[in-house]
Design goal:
Layout: H1 3-25, H2 32-39, H3 43-49, H4 53-73, H5 81-98, H6 100-109, H7 117-141, H8 150-169, H9 177-190
Length: about 200
């Protein structure tokens, strides 16, 4: 491992340790000493990468957000809008299942460390809604969907995904991402009301 790789490795270990400890103990309770101990680096190493805990926190949110975006980039290449939405839902739930500490961290500290984070978070939600809306519009053009208000339908789907993510983060639902995604998309496509058959 060369010097640049070693530096990246140490920084990533500090980011992971910080995310875990902030999620477990809270931002204010976790100490730099605990973070460096968990990351297996000297305490002084922390200050080579971060000025203080606030800067670490900002870097953690950006680092995890980049990982989240990278996990979603492949979805744009899926041709069928229905499958694109299904894969989007599954990817979102899986990411939060695998990064539960990140989700708890977001819930607990967004806005406490940097007042710009609520705006940053809402911009991410707008991107999600825009992605779903675009897939719904394409699906309507191709005759797959019949949605009158694609924006509201996208907000509805994003809200359903968010609640399944929250349930997974707090271990309230034991199903896997594929089962959750199938349930959401099938309920969305079929509706909940029983259709009376005539004839």
């Amino acid at each position: 491992m060369d010097v640049a790789e070693k530096k990246r490795d140490k920084k990533e270990r500090l980011l992971k340790a910080g995310a875990e400890l902030f999620a477990q103990k809270g931002y204010h309770s976790a100490t730099v000493e605990e973070i460096t101990r968990r990351a297996r680096v000297a305490k002084g190493t922390f200050y080579l990468y971060f000025k203080d805990k606030k800067e670490l926190m900002n870097n953690i949110l950006k680092w995890l957000s980049r990982r989240h975006e990278e996990s979603a980039e492949k979805l744009n290449s899926i041709e069928c809008p229905k499958e694109r939405i299904r894969e989007y839902i599954e990817n979102e739930i899986r990411f939060y299942d695998e990064n539960a500490s990140f989700a708890r961290l977001n819930i607990n500290v967004v806005g406490m460390v940097d007042p710009s984070f609520p705006d940053w978070y809402m911009n991410i939600q707008k991107k999600h809604v825009s992605f779903i809306k675009s897939a719904l519009e394409e699906g309507c053009r191709k005759g797959i969907f019949a949605v009158k208000d694609t924006y509201r339908a996208a907000v509805f789907l994003r809200g359903a995904v968010f609640m399944f993510q929250a349930y997974g983060v707090y271990n309230l639902d034991g199903e896997g991402p594929r089962e959750k995604a199938s349930f959401i998309i099938e309920l969305f496509l079929q509706g909940a009301e029983k259709v009376k058959r005539t004839g």
